[in-house]
């Protein structure tokens, strides 16, 4: 959004000039952008989903968070739900709605997350009721080096790749409620990052059932420091990485900075690392080279990102073919006509559009002057791109 300029009109002349300027702004408008190569024929229609939410809370109103996803589980957003009904407007399509109890993780009466699948039709309201059920719970005590592990972090993960966590109190006691039924691996992290232990397995935990466990962290932890590289040079920018113990399956996540990531308080042994995307480089998972951790010692390993996103480059000039054009818009569309990326040329006239493209074909680049409609737009169709590729489109001259 743009904000209107505030003009202090001290004189009649100032008022007249301001009015004239306003009129000129109404008459001299920015040129209209060229249409996408494959514009949709009609606007997407929307519908609504409404429903009741059932659950026993002892008379207190329910406080939930509703997360909504596309049919393929692509995350779209979330909103709070208070009370026993819900409503949401969505474009036509298939969706998953997930309802999560907002009570604290340590509340053993907490509902387990509940998912429902809905199909939305334009101009119609779908009704989908939701029933919340009390989740399972894991309780227990954590000791580190033989003493209560105050503020230890406890994570329970199931085979559906769901994880739930809580923090122990000063006596090392913890409770983790609202768990879906299933088998759980319990990972525990010493707040001081001094002691570690193997994960604890809790099988066949049913809805509403409790499991009480004793966790002992009796082994001295180590440290893993990994230098990250991309294209033969230290990885630039910031991202996140996760180290996964090959022996226990326990994982540690840390921020990458200056091409290095450090994991403190880790279990001895070898590691796999999961590095997220960074800049134009695609993340990947693999073994840490020279990354064998020993108790009470540091290990120093390395890992490389090998795939960079593709991009189109070029130079936009005026009609003479040599004078760079500043302010030219360069738009990149995929084979479906959807806008993938857009950049505006600086005073050098040079551009790089895309940057993180995977291999694909039938792409289109459209170049036009955003501020002067006298210049004819240029369309370059049938483009292909690959990983680790910067494809030059050469010099693009916009003609009057």
Overall geometry comes to: flat
CATH hierarchy, class of the largest domain: Mainly Beta
End-to-end CA span: 31 Å
Q: Nearest-angstrom radius of gyration?
A: 29 Å
Helix content: under 10%
**Tally of helical runs:** 1
* Main sheet characteristics: 4 strands, mixed
CATH architecture of the largest domain: Sandwich
- Sheet-strand content, in percent, reads over 45%
SSE class: mainly beta
Any idea how many domains? 4
Quick tags:
four-stranded antiparallel sheet; 33 strands; mainly beta; 400 residues; Immunoglobulin-like; flat
How would you describe this protein?
With 400 residues, the chain is mostly beta strands. The protein folds into four domains: 86 residues, Immunoglobulin-like (Sandwich); 84 residues, Carboxypeptidase-like, regulatory domain (Immunoglobulin-like, Sandwich), CATH 2.60.40.1120; 85 residues, Immunoglobulins (Immunoglobulin-like); 88 residues, Immunoglobulin-like, CATH 2.60.40.10. The protein has one helix and 33 strands. Strands 1, 4, 7 and 8 form a four-stranded mixed β-sheet that branches. A four-stranded antiparallel β-sheet has the order 3-2-5-6, with no helix packed on it.
List the helices and strands and how they pair.
Elements lengths: L11 H16 L18 E9 L8 E8 L4 E8 L2 E7 L1 E9 L12 E7 L4 E3 L2 E2 L4 E9 L2 E2 L4 E6 L4 E5 L5 E7 L2 E8 L5 E2 L3 E6 L4 E8 L1 E2 L1 E9 L2 E2 L4 E7 L5 E6 L3 E7 L4 E5 L8 E4 L10 E8 L4 E8 L10 E6 L5 E6 L5 E8 L2 E10 L8 E8 L4 E8 L3
Parallel strand pairs: 1-7, 1-8, 9-17, 19-26, 27-33
Antiparallel strand pairs: 1-4, 2-3, 2-5, 5-6, 9-10, 9-13, 11-12, 11-14, 14-16, 15-18, 19-20, 19-23, 21-22, 21-24, 24-25, 27-30, 28-29, 28-31, 31-32
